[in-house]
Amino acid sequence: MIYETRVYRCLPGRLPALLKRFETITLKLWDKHGIRQAGFFTTLVGESNQELTYLLAWESLAEREKKWTAFQTDPEWITARAKTEEDGQIVLNIVNQLLVPTAFSSIK
């Protein structure tokens, strides 16, 4: 397995809009494309409380490329994202990493 960690840093006050978009739109589209989430987290203590961190689980880099590209280019996603940003940009920046579990990791 490969895990992807993605951290979305929101513009001030826009985290609720991002959370709503994931809950009502994004997760349904991920289901459509076979994208598996392994957890979502907001920051309790850290540099910023305007962040959403989540993990995705992939069988391989090829699976990630195929499914993530299909999601990103899905006309339904493009339209929905634009609609949720009619009141302004939500995400300031995104940082992602692709991770491989160690031999002693509780998650494999």
Explain what you see:
Residues 3-105 form the NIPSNAP domain. InterPro entries: Dimeric_a/b-barrel, NIPSNAP. This is NIPSNAP family protein. It comes from Bradyrhizobium pachyrhizi. It holds the Pfam family NIPSNAP. With 108 residues, the chain is an alpha+beta fold. It has a single domain (2-99), classed as Alpha-Beta Plaits (2-Layer Sandwich). The chain is built from 3 helices and 4 strands, in the order E-H-E-E-H-H-E. It has helices at residues 15-33, 61-72, 75-84, and strands spanning 2-10, 36-42, 51-58, 91-99. Strands 2-3-1-4 form a 4-stranded antiparallel beta sheet. Helix 1 packs antiparallel against helix 3. The longest helix has 19 residues, at 15-33. The radius of gyration is 15 Å and the shape is globular. It starts with a strand and ends in a 9-residue tail after the last strand. 8% of the residues are buried. The model has no long low-confidence stretch (mean pLDDT 96).
